[in-house]
């Protein structure tokens, strides 16, 4: 089945955000991806192919983070952005799928704006930080600050994927380091630090 994907930029007074849409269904599915180095612009077709299983039943929306981030931004702030975007696009009662940092954002979205969320699926994420997560994220921040893109991409792949998957694609890591080099290192660092602000555990009972 051929998939088409549309790339858009949401422009509001205080929020600009890239997003992608695809799918022929009527039910809204909002997908919030994890921390990444490049953003979603220019990736519409690959992402639509990756998530094509949802295209029949859903109108899928994949949102990036806001264009302008600031030091100290939190995942709860990013969830508020998601709510603003969904309100602007008249997306209500959506099924929401959040991965990694996207899962942190999705939790706060469901806590603060339950009217926007029908079902919530969380993958490879957490509701509060621990020593392991802080060590991993701080290592990514350190590598990005040093400009070690090969080391950053390799470490992210090792932490995010199974040993078998990482081993299978280890020869592609040098190319991936080039393709995934952040356009804006400071933006990546700010968003990485936002991961460390997640502390939704005590509020999960409200979902």
Please tag this protein with its features.
207 residues, alpha/beta, six-stranded mixed sheet, 6 strands
Describe how the helices and strands are arranged.
Blueprint: E1 5-11, E2 16-22, E3 27-32, H1 44-50, E4 58-66, H2 75-88, E5 94-99, H3 101-112, E6 117-123, H4 131-146, H5 149-160, H6 163-168, H7 173-179, H8 185-195
Parallel strand pairs: 3-4, 3-5, 5-6
Antiparallel strand pairs: 1-2, 2-4
Helix pairs in contact: 2-3, 4-5, 4-8, 5-7
- What is the CA–CA distance across the termini? 36 Å
In the predicted model, the low-confidence regions spanning at least 5 consecutive residues are none
Largest sheet: 6 strands, mixed
Q: Can you count the beta strands?
A: 6
Mean pLDDT: 89
Q: Can you put this structure into words, describing what you see?
A:
The chain has 207 residues and is of the alpha/beta class. Helix content is 41%, strand content 20%. It is built from 8 helices and 6 strands, in the order βββαβαβαβααααα. The chain has helices at residues 44-50, 75-88, 101-112, 131-146, 149-160, 163-168, 173-179, 185-195, and strands at residues 5-11, 16-22, 27-32, 58-66, 94-99, 117-123. A 6-stranded mixed sheet has the order 1-2-4-3-5-6. Strand 5, helix 3 (101-112) and strand 6 form a beta-alpha-beta unit. Helix 4 runs antiparallel to helix 8 (185-195) and helix 5 (149-160) crosses helix 7 (173-179). The radius of gyration is 17 Å and the shape is globular.
Report a brief summary of the structure:
The protein has 207 residues and is α/β, with parallel strands linked by helices. The protein contains eight helices and six strands; from the N terminus they run βββαβαβαβααααα.
């Amino acid at each position: 089945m051929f998939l088409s994907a549309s790339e858009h930029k949401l422009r509001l007074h205080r929020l600009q955000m890239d997003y992608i849409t695809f799918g022929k269904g009527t039910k809204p599915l909002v997908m919030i991806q994890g921390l990444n180095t490049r953003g979603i612009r220019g990736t519409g077709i690959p992402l639509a192919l990756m998530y094509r299983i949802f295209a029949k039943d859903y109108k899928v929306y994949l949102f990036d983070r806001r264009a302008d981030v600031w030091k100290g931004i939190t995942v709860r702030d990013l969830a508020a952005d998601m709510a603003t975007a969904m309100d602007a696009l008249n997306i209500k009662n959506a099924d929401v799928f959040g991965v990694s940092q996207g899962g942190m954002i999705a939790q706060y979205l469901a806590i603060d704006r339950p009217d926007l969320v029908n079902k919530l699926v969380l993958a490879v994420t957490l509701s509060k930080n621990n020593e392991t997560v802080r060590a991993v994220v701080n290592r990514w921040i350190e590598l990005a600050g040093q400009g070690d893109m090969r080391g950053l991409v390799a470490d992210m792949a090792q932490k995010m994927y199974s040993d078998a998957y990482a081993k299978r694609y280890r020869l592609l890591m040098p190319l991936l380091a080039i393709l995934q080099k952040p356009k804006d290192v400071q933006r990546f660092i700010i968003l990485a630090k936002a991961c460390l602000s997640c502390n939704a555990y005590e509020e999960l009972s409200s979902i």
